[in-house]
């Protein structure tokens, strides 16, 4: 597993993109899985968060609270037992 320390919104964006790519999914595929448009996923990955997330990250940084994201091992879902 990979751990990423997120101190700023752009760290969170990078982690989201890395996790998606680790799954081998396109932005469109991830968007379809969660019921949003591809542009929304692209915005998140490029750091276009809402004001609440930006303020939360600033607040956590000011309090010196670390947010650590753990990215799971890549799972090849194309060979699942469901077939």
Number of helices: 4
Count every beta strand, where a strand is a DSSP E run of 2 or more residues. Answer: 2
Report the order of strands and helices: EHHHHE
Tell me the helix content. Answer: 40-55%
State the strand order across the main sheet. Answer: 1-2
**Oligomerization state of this entry?**
single chain
SS strand fraction: 5-15%
Determine and state the CATH class.
Mainly Alpha
Distance from N terminus to C terminus (CA atoms, Å) equals: 27 Å
Q: Look at the structure and name the CATH superfamily.
A: lambda repressor-like DNA-binding domains
Number of domains: 1
Short summary of the structure?
The chain has 83 residues and is α+β, with helices and mostly antiparallel strands. It is built from four helices and two strands, in the order E-H-H-H-H-E.
Structure description:
This protein is of the alpha+beta class and 83 residues long. The chain has a single domain, classed as Orthogonal Bundle (434 Repressor (Amino-terminal Domain)), CATH 1.10.260. Helices cover 52% and strands 12% of the residues. It has four helices and two strands; from the N terminus they run βααααβ. The chain has a two-stranded antiparallel sheet with strand order 1-2. The longest helix has 15 residues. The protein starts with a strand and ends in a 12-residue tail after the last strand.
